[in-house]
Amino acid sequence: MQEFLQQRKFKLSVYEILKEEGPDHQKTFHVKVQFDHGQNQPKLAASGKGTCKKDAEQDAAKKGITML
User: Fold this and answer.
1) CB contact set of 17 (below 8 Å; sequence gap of 6+)
2) How far is residue 30's CA from residue 21's CA, in Å, rounded to a whole number?
3) What is this structure's pTM?
4) Which candidate in 27, 35, 42, 50 could, as Cys together with 13 as Cys, close a disulfide (CB 3.0–4.6 Å)?
5) Is the pLDDT of residue 27 over 80?
6) Are 33 and 57 in contact (CB under 8 A)?
7) Bigger pLDDT: 46 vs 11
8) What 3 state SS string does the chain have?
9) Contact, 21 vs 27, CB < 8 A?
10) How many C-alpha atoms does 8 have within 13 Å on its Cβ side?
11) Pick from 52, 16, 58: nearest CA to 34
């Protein structure tokens, strides 16, 4: 998503961890990504989840790209 936004001169996305659930050895992370996709356009947000923060961020990014 970062490359996609940079190529189009959009502002970079911001990730936020919404929730961590489960035991330490088997956590699930819920992440929200928010991005600005152009002048005079409202910010968009997508959420994702995964077994590590990176997977959750990638899931949110994939969903965010489909919104564009």
Assistant:
1) 29, 30, 31, 53, 56
2) 8
3) 0.80
4) 35
5) yes
6) yes
7) 46
8) CHHHHHHCCCCCCEEEEEEEECCHHHCEEEEEEEECCCCCCCCEEEEEEECCHHHHHHHHHHHHHHHC
9) yes
10) 15
11) 16
Give the pLDDT of residue 22: 96
What does the pLDDT average to over 23-37?
91
Tokens 């990504």 belong to 33
Judge whether 14 and 5 are in contact, CB under 8 Å. no
Backbone angles phi, psi at 52, to 5 degrees: -140, 165
Of 18, 7, 10, which Cα lies nearest the Cα of 37?
10
**Once rounded to an integer, what is the mean pLDDT over residues 3-13?**
77
Burial 29-49 (b: 16+ CB within 10 A, else e): bbbbbbbebeeeeeeebbbbe
